[in-house]
Amino acid sequence: MRTKFIFFSGKGGVGKTSMACATAIYYADQGKKTLVVTTDPAANLSDVFEQEIGHKVTKINGIENLYAMEIDPDKATEEYKERCLAPMRELFDEEMLKIAEEQLSGPCTEEMAAFDKFIDFMEEDSYDMIIFDTAPTGHTIRLLELPVDWSRHIEESSKGSGQTCMGPVALIQESKKKYDDAVSKLRDPEQTDFIFVMQPEETSLKETIRSINELKEIGITTTKIIVNGLIPREEAINPFFKSRYDMQQTYLSKAKDIFNNIPIQTMELFDSELKGIEMFRKVAERLFEGSDIHG
User: Fold this and answer.
1) Which positions fall inside the ArsA/GET3 Anion-transporting ATPase-like domain (predicted)?
2) Which of 14, 61, 101, 231 could join 245 in a cystine, given CB atoms 3.0 to 4.6 angstroms apart?
């Protein structure tokens, strides 16, 4: 069975967006209705596809079957607050609504809102493939951990003020089933692929090790690692590139030793900027050359 959801994660700047877009284009070209969603606040899908996208599902020009959306954290937060407050408007007076609104201005409401938004997509039936280009890893993992910690969180809050950092307990309980369903999809390797993108260097390797272990603790399996940005061997004749090439090869073999039970794919540097559909078709060719991205 082919998975429906593919997450690309990793440190900022490792090439997640490029790999996510190349994968999306590959599936769209296969005739699958594909959506690529970014939850990264520093999103650049608009740059990559050279058209305005923003906080709405947008058809990508020049290719069939491809849609994209950049989740805007501020707009997502407003929508989430409104969704929470709407059922209360007819029941409560202004003062009570004001209190509820204040309760929804807690520090993690924004994270909940982003999570809520991408879970909406995990319930979506009108796409064959949904590809998530996620924010730098720590942020993503915190979002995934929120629902896992749910029950304890609700229990503790109901003993106290009936208030949680996500808003009033009553509102959260309504969302619990929706979130539990999403987490079970995330934990099911037949429905969801979790792919890490890393660069062949120490900080990126350390971050990937830490993140993969954290995901494992909450029951999410990493299905593939893409080591991106390798200098091609034929370029290593230049002394500057040679020393960098040697360093990269050292970290690549370390990664292969450490992640010996996870498929690893390598991507060499391109000699031009990654932009536009034709360029990403070339990336997709390399990415899917002789093997499927699902390992």
Assistant:
1) 3-288
2) 231
Helical spans, DSSP H, in 202-289: 202-217, 239-258, 277-288
CB atoms within 10 A of CB 7: 26
pTM of the model: 0.85
Distances in Å between the Cα of 40 and the Cα atoms of 17, 73, 119, 180 are 9, 9, 15, 23
Give me the domain span that covers residue 126: 4-73+119-147+186-287
For the domain that residue 124 is a member of, what is the CATH number?
A: 3.40.50.300
Asked if residue 202 is part of any domain, the answer here is: yes
| Coil, strand or helix at 268 | strand
Which of 205, 249, 252 lies closest to 14 in space, CA to CA? 205
The number of folded domains in the chain is 1
How many CA atoms does the CB half-sphere of 19 hold within 13 Å? 32
Instruction: Note whether residue 49 is domain-resident.
Output: yes
pLDDT tens readout for residues 93-135: 888 888 878 878 766 677 778 778 878 888 888 999 999 998 6
**Is residue 87 in a domain?**
no
Integer CA distances (angstroms), 63 to 66, 92, 140, 254, 276, in order:
7, 49, 29, 39, 11
**Is the Cβ–Cβ distance between 23 and 32 less than 8 Å?**
no
Assess if residue 90 is contained within a domain.
no
Supply the DSSP string of 204-216, one letter for each residue: HHHHHHHHHHHHH
